[in-house]
Amino acid sequence: MITLLINDKKYKLDIAPEMPLLWAIRDVIGLTGTKFGCGIGACGACKVLVNATATYSCLTPVKDVVGKKITTIEGTTPNLQLLQEAWAAFNVPQCGYCQPGQLITATSLLNTINNPSDTDIDEAMSGNICRCGTYQRIKSAIQHTVELKNQTK
Amino acid sequence: MSTNNNISRRSFVKNISLASGGLILACNYSLFSNEMNTTNAVEFNPNLFVQLNTDGSLILIASRSEMGNGVRTSLTSVIADEMEADWNQVSVKQAVGDAKYGDQNTDGSRSILYLYETMRKMGAMTKAMLITAAAKTWQVPESECHAQNHFVIHTGGKKIGFGALAETAKTLEIPTNITYKNPKDFKYIGKSLKSIDVANYANGSAIFGIDKRLPNMKFAAIARCPVTFGTVQSFDKSAAMKIRGVLDVIEIPRIEKPFGPLGGIAVIATSTWAAFEGKKALAITWNYGKNETYDSEAYMVEITKNVHQPAKVEKEIGNVDQAFASANKIIESTFQLPHLAHAPMEVPNAVAWVQGDTCQVWAPTQDPQTAREEVTAYLATTSDKVTLNVTFLGGGFGRKSKPDYIVEAVILSKAIHAPVQVVWTREDDIKHGYYHTVSSQYMKASLDNQGRVTGWLHRFALPSIMSTFTPGIEFAQNWEIATASDIPYEIKNLKVEVGQAPAHVRIGWMRSVINIPHGFAVNVFADELAFAANKDPLEFRLDLIGSDRLEDTKDPIKYDTKRLKNVLKRAAKNANWHQPLPNGHAYGIAVQYSFYTYVASVVEVSMLNDKIKVHNIYTVIDCGTVINSDTVKAQLEGAAIFGMSLAFYGKITAKNGIIEQNSFSDYPLIRMNEIPKVHVDIVESTENPTGVGEPGVPVIAPAIVNAIFKLTGKRYYNLPLSDYNLV
């Protein structure tokens, strides 16, 4: 049995230890907000927070994250919530499919750097593909969230 | 106020009272003939629904698929506006695939074009009935009542909510006189409504096809022959069966239809991962078949040969040979573009549950009616037994118009008597697509001593989309020719020829379709001519378009050269075309009329260490009446990135019949660190609304190439630019 802590909830799963976290989350637990895009860590659609860091769940066997705190798009963290509000305010998504991964990556960025520069944003977000091409709005929404956080400090 | 009395009573097929106390309206009439989609036998007869509940909540049905096009919001907002509904009371329900809704095929950038007036009617008609209901309730003349923000108000000051009128309204006759709002009174149309689904996208609760779950549902992955239309000779499933979670391995045959599954070996499992792992463990011997000879490099040589010699003449105006003979200057160029894959972020997938002679499907599909027909045909049943539920689409771009992956799920569900979800791997998606065509284009033009174009020859060879429908077609067909033969240039001597190009993979339409190759060649060539004539590319192009006129194309909608010149001028103005740029920066320009819409882009590039950087893209669109300006803006922002991806990286190649690319690692797409600032400007217009999703794509690549020429003096005739180590 593998025990995972996802969004503050414990899941005991009878699965192979090598199963990628992505499929445990989607197919076994049934949280489908985390997406499959490529399975090789090239698109970022599958990213979840492991502790506070965005991680390619398609490349992460469940045995490697036992005992760690996993947050998916269905979870809540202060930065994720702020970003989700900005995503809505900037009407960021088009098809919406990659956006959970984008939001998780942006959350990880803000968890690490309080005041990211343009280059920081580009670097952090370049692992995530959006085929619809919403990058400009993603960037604006991140910058807006940073400004908002700085104002309320 | 405008009035339209043209609605026949017969055209209203339903006026059904709902048990829930609601009011359903449906209307059925045709706008345009459906000229492009050849497989869709459905007539263009929209039936659109409004459901008003007694508590005032309003359910509006979206009959078209949502794939980032914003259609669930735009179509329903038109109904709400004409109805004077309060948007906060609206929820949107996705229609299942059913001919009663009229054409639901969400491609060709035509959802708004086809449905705008119908949607207005649906709203206006509902409003009229609510006003009648209020007048009846109050025993006052209808002329003393008007609707405003979900209420009907009497001149005397009384008001009543829409919900409270539902019961009375449902007993009324459908009105014959429909009164429309004056466009200046629009509340939602032309404004910026946010996507009605934005919150669900951001919190992960939007259900895409791949997210559908059913009790006892199995997961399936399919190994398909690496060569298009190859077959299974033999296979060994023993290793696959040993993988934990693998339940079964089943051979499925190819169905020889345009949208038929390719066939192969399916692995059924308890999770997607187990299915993927099981698929990897299969040992299969394939019969590759005749497409094994397909080598895209050799093929390019072959089709290029076919455009370097006289080919099938499709159009000739004047006498091109004579113009060439008396030319002051002759320019000729050849353009080569590779196959492309759609690569939507959500791979093809579908859930099917066959129970007895009924079947339920949940799928991300652009064309639920065709999907339903294919499923019905496979099960040899009647369409009433097949329910085609449309989920959110994680991108479509034309790929999800083709329901091969849906039929796969149906085959497997029928075989194992359980609900099945088929999921393609990304490698499956890249290797077994309906590829955007590969092309070679030869262009030749003559200039007189004033630098004016006197003759123009456009000769191209590309495997036709129609080869997918009618195997054996080896020449471009009708609309694949029209973009070249109907170019909006005032040239006295013009010839369009089509060379032979047999297909060796499935050819499909991808966002902006034939406008990608034609838009590229024509825009780059026009720029080349401008430089040969020693003229400014913008001024040269405006001269080439020439006088203000409506072009006499075969299409019911004529294009207007004045509008074309306007977007060109406006893009140049927005970019300050005539002002000097910083050192090492240059502008390129391109313009394209597609899907009845006018788009021009000016692109600013620089080179650093021999690598291109795109800094700004100034796009201007004239798509007639705008329904949702933020959606238009978003589509054009996205189109710029889509266009950049194909310009920079887009390339699918085949060797020994096998597609060489696999995933985003070797079929790269533009990422955040490469994006320019995209500035979108929308022309205000009261003309009919026209396409938005696609027309922004084809101008980007040629504008980039033209800018690079301006900067470096080097002209790149082939894509992608990664082949030249420029990106």
TrEMBL record, chain A:
Keyword Oxidoreductase: yes
Iron-sulfur is among the record's keywords: yes
GO molecular function: 2 iron, 2 sulfur cluster binding; metal ion binding; oxidoreductase activity
SUPFAM superfamilies assigned to the protein according to its UniProt record, in alphabetical order: 2Fe-2S ferredoxin-like (SSF54292), CO dehydrogenase ISP C-domain like (SSF47741)
PROSITE patterns associated with the record: 2FE2S_FER_1, 2FE2S_FER_2
2Fe-2S ferredoxin-type domain residues: 1-76
A Pfam family reported for this protein in Swiss-Prot or TrEMBL: Fer2_2
InterPro entries recorded: 2Fe-2S-bd, 2Fe-2S-bd_dom_sf, 2Fe-2S_ferredoxin-like_sf, 2Fe-2S_ferredoxin-type, 2Fe2S_fd_BS, Beta-grasp_dom_sf, Diverse_Oxidoreductases
Transmembrane segments: none
UniProtKB keywords: 2Fe-2S, Iron, Iron-sulfur, Metal-binding, Oxidoreductase
Domain of life of the organism encoding this protein: Bacteria
Protein name: (2Fe-2S)-binding protein
UniProtKB/TrEMBL annotation, chain B:
Aldehyde oxidase/xanthine dehydrogenase a/b hammerhead domain residues: 203-290
SUPFAM superfamilies associated with the record: Molybdenum cofactor-binding domain
SMART domains in alphabetical order: Ald_Xan_dh_C (SM01008)
PROSITE patterns xref list: TAT (PS51318)
Pfam families tied to this protein: MoCoBD_1 (PF02738), MoCoBD_2 (PF20256)
UniProt superkingdom: Bacteria
InterPro entries named among the record's database cross-references: Ald_Oxase/Xan_DH_a/b, AldOxase/xan_DH_MoCoBD1, AldOxase/xan_DH_MoCoBD2, AldOxase/xan_DH_Mopterin-bd_sf, N-heterocyclic_Hydroxylase, OxRdtase_Mopterin-bd_su_IorB, TAT_signal
Alphabetized GO MF terms: oxidoreductase activity
Descriptive protein name: Xanthine dehydrogenase family protein molybdopterin-binding subunit
Organism of provenance: Flavobacterium restrictum
